[in-house]
C-alpha cells in the first residue's frame, strides 16, 4: 500500500514537473506570439484587420497540413516510446525515433508540395479565390518541409517524460519567428512603404525560420543527453523483437487518430472560415472587406489572446499522454483514475480563473493589442469563456488518447462538429458575429460531457469529486472576476481605457489584484495544497504561509 502511495506521488510529481515545463514553453511562446501583434498591427495601418484575416485563414489551412505532414506521429511516438520504456525496452523506442525521422521527411516533402500547388483551391472566402491568400498560403508551405522533423524530435523527448527540451525549443522557435516577423514588417511597411501583402508573406515565412532554430536546439539536447540515453538502451531487457514493418504499422495505427483528434480545434475554426462569410452576407448588407474585418475579430484577434490560456491545457495534455499510456500498459487502473483526477484538478485550478480574468479585462487588453474597439472587446469577452470549452476538449481528448480510446475520441469529435455545423446558421442569424462562438461552445460541451461520462464509467473516475472542485474554483474565480472588474472600473474613472498606455496600466493593476485575491483565498482554503501536492506545502512552510 505504501509503495502504491509512493508511486502515486512520483506520478503526480512527474506530471506537475512536466506540466510546469510545458506550461512555460506554451505560455512563453504564446505571449511572444501575442505581444508581437502590437507593433505589427500598428505598422499595418488601416490594413490591420484584413492582414490579420489573411493570416488567420492561411494558418487554419497550414495547421491542418502540419498535422497531416507530421501525421500525428510526434504524439504517437511519445505514446509508443513511453510504452516501450515502461517495459524497459529503450532500444525499440530509439529505433522508433529513427524510423520515424525518415517517415517525417517524406511526409513533409509531399505535404508541402500539395499545399503549395493546392493553394488556389484553398484560398477562398466562401465565394471566390483570393490571389492575396494564395501568396500567403504558399509562403507557409516552406515551414511544412521542416516542422515535421522538429515535431518528432519533441515527441521523442516527451516519451521519456522529459518536457524541458520541448518547452525550450518552443520558446526559441517562437522567439526567432517573432524577430523575423517584426524585422521584415518594419522594413517593408515603415522603411520601404511597401505592400501589406508582402509583409504578411514574410511574416508567414517566419514559421520556417523559427523551426530551423528549434531543431538546432533539440539537436544540442540530444547530444547533451546522449550518454544517459545510451546507458538506458544498453541496459534494456532486449527481449522484444519488433521489425521495421511492425514499427511503421504501429506508428501509422497510432498516428491516424492523432491527426484527426489534434486537428479538432482547427476543424471547428475551418467551419467558421468557410461558412461565416457567405452566411453573414446573406443576413446583412456589408462589403466583403467589412465582413473580413468581422471575421478577424474572432478568427484571429480574440483567438490569438485566448490561445495564451488554452495553451495551459495543451501543456497539461502533452504531459498526461505518456504517463497515462505507461499506466495503461501496466494495467494499473488505480493509477489511471488518480492521474485523470490530477490532470482535471490542475486544469480547473489554472484554466477557470485565467478565463474569468481575461473576460474581466477584455476591453483594456483588446485596446493594448489592437486599439479601442467595442465590438472587438465584446467578442474577446465571449471568447474568454470559450477558452474553457476549448481547454476541456484539449485535455479530455488527450486523456482518451493516452488510454487508447482513439476511436471513441474521433466519434465524439465528429458528433461535436456535426452539431456545430447544424447550429452555425441559426446562431449567426440570432447573434451575428458572436454566432460562431456560441455554436462552437455548444459543440464542444457535448464532446466534454460524453468524455467525462465515459471516464467515470470505464475507469472509475470520481466525477462527483471533480464537480465539487469545479464549484469551488468557479466560486473563487467569480470573486476574482468581481475584484478585477471593480479595480478596472475604479481606475477607469481616472484613466481612459481607450488609450493604449492607460489600458496597459489598467491591465497590470487589475490582474495583480486578481492574482493576489485568488492566491489568498486558495491558500486559506487549502486548495493550492491539495492540487499541487507536497512540493508546494514545503515551500509554504519555508515562507511561513502554511497556517
Radius of gyration: 23 Å
What oligomeric state is this? single chain
Major beta-sheet overview: none
- Strand percentage: under 5%
Mean pLDDT: 83
Q: In sequence order, what are the helices and strands, one letter per element?
A: HHHHHHHHHHHHHHHHHHHHH
Fraction of helical residues: over 70%
Keywords: Cell membrane, Membrane, Transmembrane, Transmembrane helix
InterPro entries: PG_synth_SpoVB, Poly_Biosynth_Transport, Polysacc_synth
Protein name: Polysaccharide biosynthesis protein
GO cellular component, one term: plasma membrane
Present the secondary structure layout.
Layout: H1 2-35, H2 37-43, H3 48-70, H4 73-86, H5 90-122, H6 131-159, H7 164-191, H8 196-224, H9 226-234, H10 244-262, H11 264-281, H12 288-330, H13 333-360, H14 362-370, H15 374-402, H16 406-431, H17 435-459, H18 463-492, H19 500-524, H20 527-532, H21 534-542
Helix pairs in contact: 1-7, 1-12, 1-13, 2-3, 3-5, 3-6, 3-10, 3-11, 3-12, 4-5, 4-6, 4-10, 4-12, 5-6, 5-10, 6-7, 6-8, 7-8, 10-16, 11-12, 11-16, 12-13, 12-15, 13-15, 13-18, 14-15, 14-19, 15-17, 16-17, 18-19
Walkthrough of the structure:
There is one protein chain. The model is unreliable at 1-12 (pLDDT under 50). α1 (2-35) packs parallel to α7 and α4 runs parallel beside α12. With 547 residues, the chain is mostly helical. The relative contact order is 0.11. The protein has helices spanning 2-35, 37-43, 48-70, 73-86, 90-122, 131-159, 164-191, 196-224, 226-234, 244-262, 264-281, 288-330, 333-360, 362-370, 374-402, 406-431, 435-459, 463-492, 500-524, 527-532, 534-542. The chain has a domain at 1-241. The radius of gyration is 23 Å and the shape is globular. The protein has 21 helices and no strands.
